[in-house]
Design a protein that fits this description.
Blueprint: H1 6-17, E1 20-23, E2 26-29, E3 43-46, E4 58-61, H2 72-82, E5 86-89, H3 105-118, E6 124-129, H4 131-142, E7 147-153, H5 164-173, H6 184-193, H7 198-206, E8 208-211, E9 214-217, H8 221-226, H9 228-232, E10 247-252, H10 256-269, E11 273-278, H11 285-288, H12 290-317
Parallel strand pairs: 4-5, 4-6, 6-7, 7-10, 10-11
Antiparallel strand pairs: 1-2, 3-5, 8-9
Helix pairs in contact: 1-3, 2-12, 3-4
Length: about 325
């Protein structure tokens, strides 16, 4: 029998797990066809000489206005702390990865499947921040065998509310001409004049890098604007679809109120979930308090390693 390629396997599994959606004439199954797209995801691997290749690698997936370089320092330190190989990657329309007009989570999950196949990583643990968290949760619910542990930051497996002002702000930013600005301070002054949503403005400024006296944006804002509703959404799954492995959800004061309403969804899809509240958590804790995140991730991933060692010891002694 001819082996299925990654996108064919993913599509078959997605058909199996996707829920029926309610229509006027009753329940009908979503049978949208998925075609393979040619996306080249840029990535970096942290693997110091003492890395234990027997341990499950960790994959880090960034947020909507982020890129892999935001997580480079944490990835490097996490590699030293846990001795696990760590892979940070740029999602489609971000950093050095390819651009594409579609950013639905089933598409971005498929992009990751192909990257994991390319890197020969059949099983991984993962860290996902907001959009990256939704991508990883989509894949964990579709192909749970690919994940040993799942750590999600500041997001739940549910749809977010569309804020009209943010949509309008993204339309303003879609044609942003960075060459007109000499530095980030000039750009910040301009964005304030546009009366953008404060959180969006901070996100955009975080996604700007300065090289050779030029400002560069690490996210394709035009494609983000086109896909903004898809980014806020979360794929609907059948009621019994879960990821039963160890999972950790981290939230803070900025998102606590919404997250409290999402608790049922977290436990419904991730029944083994632990939820950790950090009052100092803003949307960029990985940049503002990387030490705190490293402490949490180190304990989470080492806990799994200790459990595995206990099982091996019991097996040997038995």
């Amino acid at each position: 029998m001819m082996a299925l390629r990654p996108f064919q396997r993913f599509n078959a599994l997605f058909y199996k797990y996707i829920t029926s959606s309610l229509c006027g004439c009753g329940n009908v199954y979503v049978t949208r066809s998925f075609s393979q797209r040619k996306i080249d995801l840029d990535y970096e691997v942290h693997c110091h000489p003492e890395t234990n290749t027997q341990l499950t690698p960790v994959v880090i997936s960034h947020a909507l206005y982020g890129c892999k370089s935001d997580w480079s320092s944490i990835g490097k330190e996490l590699n030293y702390i846990t001795k696990r190989k760590v892979v940070c990657y740029d999602a489609v329309n971000h950093g050095c990865s390819s651009s594409h007009e579609d950013m639905a989570y089933k598409d971005m999950a498929l992009d990751l499947v192909i990257l994991l196949e390319k890197l020969n990583l059949p099983t991984v643990s993962c860290i996902g921040h907001r959009m990256g968290g939704k991508t990883l949760m989509t894949l964990a619910l579709t192909q749970p065998e690919r994940f040993e542990q799942v750590a999600i930051i500041d997001i739940a497996p549910s749809a977010e509310i569309l804020i009209e002002n943010t949509t309008k702000d993204l339309e303003k930013l879609a044609n942003l001409q960075l060459y007109k600005f000499q530095c980030k301070e000039d750009l910040e002054a301009y964005l304030k004049e546009q009366q953008l949503d404060l959180r969006l403005m901070r996100s955009i400024l975080f996604s700007i890098i300065q090289r050779n006296d030029k400002l560069n944006l690490t996210v394709n804002l035009a494609n983000v604007r086109k896909n903004y509703q898809d980014v806020l959404a979360f794929p609907p799954f059948q009621p019994d679809v879960t990821f039963n492995g160890p999972s950790l959800f981290i939230t803070g004061f900025q998102s606590l109120e919404k997250f409290l309403g999402d608790f049922p969804w977290v436990y419904k899809r991730f029944p083994s979930a632990k939820i950790q509240y950090l009052p100092e958590l803003d949307r960029w804790l990985h940049l503002e308090r990387p030490d705190k995140l490293l402490e949490i991730f180190g304990e989470f991933f080492m806990e799994r390693e200790d459990t595995s060692n206990e099982k091996r010891t019991m097996s040997i002694s038995g």
